[in-house]
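step 4 of 6: structure.
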Amino acid sequence: MLSDRRAHLKSLAAGIGALAASWAVPAPSSGAKGPLDNADSAPRFKIEEIPLKQVVVDDKFWSPRLEVNRTKTLDHVYGELEASGCIRNFDLAARKATGRFGGPWWADSDVYKWIEGASYVLGSHPDAALERKVDDLIARIAAAQQPDGYLNTHVLIEEPDLRFRNLAFFHEDFSSGHLFEAAVAHYEATGKRGLLDVATRLADCFDATFGPGKRAGLSGHEGIELAWVRLYRATGEKRYLRLAEFYLNQRGQKPSLFEREYESLPRDRTVLWREGRPVNLRALHEHFFLARPPAFDTSYCQDNLPVREQSSAVGHAVRAMFLYCGVADVADETGDPALLAALHRLHDSVTLRRMYVTGGIGPSAKNEGFTDDYDLPNENAYQETCASAGMVLWNHRMFKLTGDGSYIDLLEQSLYNAVLAGVSLEGNTFCYATPLACDTEFKRQPWFEVPCCPTTASRFLPSLGRYVYSQSADGLWVNLYVGGELSVTLPNGAKVKVRQRTDYPWDGHVRLQVEVDQAQEFTLHVRIPGWAQASALRLNGAKLSPPVSKGYAHIHARWSRGDGVELSIPLETVKLEANPKVLQSRGKVALRRGPLIYCLEQPDNKADLDRIALPSAGGRLAEHFEAGLLGGVVIIEGEGRVRHLDGWETALYRPVRPTDGAPAAIKAIPYCVWGNRGQQKMKVWIDSVAS
Amino acid sequence: MLSDRRAHLKSLAAGIGALAASWAVPAPSSGAKGPLDNADSAPRFKIEEIPLKQVVVDDKFWSPRLEVNRTKTLDHVYGELEASGCIRNFDLAARKATGRFGGPWWADSDVYKWIEGASYVLGSHPDAALERKVDDLIARIAAAQQPDGYLNTHVLIEEPDLRFRNLAFFHEDFSSGHLFEAAVAHYEATGKRGLLDVATRLADCFDATFGPGKRAGLSGHEGIELAWVRLYRATGEKRYLRLAEFYLNQRGQKPSLFEREYESLPRDRTVLWREGRPVNLRALHEHFFLARPPAFDTSYCQDNLPVREQSSAVGHAVRAMFLYCGVADVADETGDPALLAALHRLHDSVTLRRMYVTGGIGPSAKNEGFTDDYDLPNENAYQETCASAGMVLWNHRMFKLTGDGSYIDLLEQSLYNAVLAGVSLEGNTFCYATPLACDTEFKRQPWFEVPCCPTTASRFLPSLGRYVYSQSADGLWVNLYVGGELSVTLPNGAKVKVRQRTDYPWDGHVRLQVEVDQAQEFTLHVRIPGWAQASALRLNGAKLSPPVSKGYAHIHARWSRGDGVELSIPLETVKLEANPKVLQSRGKVALRRGPLIYCLEQPDNKADLDRIALPSAGGRLAEHFEAGLLGGVVIIEGEGRVRHLDGWETALYRPVRPTDGAPAAIKAIPYCVWGNRGQQKMKVWIDSVAS
């Protein structure tokens, strides 16, 4: 008779066999061709991303934030990754140390994200000490990789028999995707192949396991899809692009792959969850997918429908962003019209019905994600920083697919508001959830049990340059007004530089200076924001009226050294109202100036924020730069009212009372610098009263 | 070896044994005394209900509705009960017919509710044909009763081995409670003991099964608790009062009684659910109590906490109302201060944070009940008619416990708005869910698969007289302004009549005429509504300023034949606003005149209702009686605006635009007569604009 332990192992092995069988995917018949088979004939890279190293950021708004990220945040995040055991996990997996796994199951992803951010920094700021730190870390990672290429420290240390068995929640694919991204970033920044070799060995381990004719693969937390495409673009290895499309195509089956996976998991297995709490292995499937048993609902991770049939943004917001980016990347490579159509439907779903005025998404803490159309609570807005960064990534891809500046408007909205609010000015505390209104209980934290948002900040900020310019066959695109310099090579081999000088977003004047050795003919596509009431262009001082379409002025010219373009966008404070279906912001206004959404924070206002109201129309509003405030910001001042709110504790309904109250000065600051003066009341949407 | 079937029965029997053991309740030790042991010393019936037969309703507002109920609704409901098999169930259970059970599992309760309503009608309108119909039905019910007193046709016909095994959902207790109520009503109206004897035999069957030292008992759908007290009051049998308190005391245990019950239910048993659909016996427990397995959450039926610890109204709204009524009745008998304190907390929870302006409750269809504080959607307001009637029952009890007229204000609010809107003017269609705003898809239905609301209407309306007056040691209480006559006997044996004449709620003048044989000294307590801006009293034409407290003018006098009191309450149209925390009604106003809440219905308004707005303050409003409209109602007319709502399809946020739009006449009708002109758009809360 077998001992219990041996019986357990035997049943596990049998389970794995059954699993492999249930997940087997038939190889495609030779006659059937997917969109990928036409990849070479599809239009590719109409608008191309410019390598990050070719863009220098140098202005008063962004440079201080990037410098804080480089000099403070990177070290802070590394220290926390060490302290929480996330880095030591690699030594444990390499059997060079002993102990228990540290951090969340997908802790590897955060280490990879740190490397990605550090690589971007190395690309623009050579730094021997940082380079050594990265190299050492890469060596420790490489040592943990298994002979067959497999690499996931949580599974290797704690649950070696469950490799690729809990795709829904172990996140081997999500973490691997971040390794692919870090590896490409590191290679591009330093030219070193060490991490890229680790990544391709791991990619090949996936490729040996998943794919047509092999096992079905699906990521419970998307992220590997876009990473497959990035790795393909860096290596030219088409198997990776095929896997990206394969992962997309597995989504939305009935029954879900995750339901089949759940059924195959041992019933009485206990695993260690966060902070070492023991949980049943099947508990997370039940929690997220079985809210109404016996119905299995995997919309939490966008597995509710095949991607080409999706129309509504559902579930976990960060997962959704990674998925949509992966869809966009595959569509960009294959031209698959069904993927493009789904992207447009999903984009409407998010931006017309499910997005905060700050460009953030995902109102609910319950699923860290989407709820219903027009449900956008301010007080408990979840608006995860990673999801806000995801909006930048997704809109950047939508722009590249379409050449439409309205996507850059949205990218800018998320970037200057929701994303930037996620990091303190000091660079060592972060928002995970990022409310649009809060009482004094809320504050940024130095670290989280799930530390994705700090590592997102550390990898996202130094990648800013990626979004500023683009290139196409006919010329250059100026997407964002960020001071600095662009260096590119034209299709004819000529070198061009574009210098940008601006005090944006405080001021709407942008000066672009073109540097060429010899005169060159090309189009300079200069973005005109959709929100701009008016704008003016000058070429070498002379008024210019070039054709404007899809949010860009297209200036075709034969450019000579020193040619200068000036763009002027008047920045005025505008009172915004939300669609009346957004109940939580009904009867309220928000202040926007240029790309910046403003908020009231208690230290700048005498009256309790809950009692302040603004006239919905009219009313004097003035702006000025306060050099000494929050690193220097343009503030908005005006006259509001202090309302009487007494008596509502004992009344649910009462006769209408006048709400105008006494006049009171109000002062608003940019939302992106909120929360840097201790725990203070804050609100974006301000109650409005009749003028 | 046992056959499968025999093995099944054996395991069932074992289960029942285990069940009985797990549910056994230790007998109280002789030293421990519950509050009930002090019942005789507690203050009782400070304010007493006046037997229904002593109150005649005779006015222009109510009499037509009661007459429609008597001549149409009663027949309509009986016909539907017959057609749906609910009545024939008793013949099946008596083995006088064959076939399958008809209606929902608790169909008996609807038959009993019809008898209760018919009995009230018989009390005021002797009718030989109706009396024969009732007597025949009672004979069929009596024939179905088992020798041990047990009576539940669903269990007897379909699941005889599951008697008292599915307390959460078979509702044997809920249905029996309605039998107790009907039996008392029938006995009081006719003096016949037939149904009362059935009721006491059934009550004794419960008493033999449940109670201290016997099995634990708890109603999955409350209703038996208040019925125990009513049966106790009618029979003087104290065991019934003890059982009422016992049922309350079983609530809120950890683990819940329903969890223990669930564990004891056979796993693979299929039973027939509504419309004969087979379901697993355990499915309803899982659906309602296991939304987040493995946590067992029984807040759906207010089993989340011991009743004395409850503070927040949760779960199914009708269940909650029945529970709170039962708590109030037991508290009235025992004076238990912990029950009284819980009632006050729960009342605040409902009326300060979870009640519609119509006095209805329970916003969500999902649980037919409460959600969160201040969550009161208008479009999909569930506001079940049974729950609205429950608000009348509960506030009546709260008034009797306290003598506080604010509870009658709330009773009146629910009665004249949410309850009355539940029945059409024709009396043959009903609301189950009763929205506060609807498009053209909504209409009243003649019947429902779960027909509780039609039977609630048929039993509630003829009981109206119960709420108009009360009596205390020192005199009489005039609670509602309903024309008709009251006949009472004073403590000294003297007979008094009070005649009330009024056109309320159209007009605020009320004339009360006292009829006595000899002059009598007592206090006439006349309610002054909390919403009245002003009021004036006259005694025999002379101005009177009696002391006013807790919503009543206390007129102490030596009353002679023909003494007349006149009350004048100016009825003005008032614009109400909701607490700003009620997001769904933010920036909107509702119109109230006297006790009536008004609404806009499309036939009275040219502009689409969605575009109509009212100035939040100022703006002319006029009222007049339209004899030809909806049976004769006072309508409200005024000047509103027609707003432009274009462009929001493609915008989630935009700069504030003026919303005043063109002037437009608006016309509002009482909410209680809404929905009598086909399927029309309607809304209670009207968007407001600056004056």
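step 5 of 6: annotate
 - The first strand of chain B starts at residue 47 and ends at 49.
 - DSSP finds 17 helices and 26 strands in chain B.
step 6 of 6: archive
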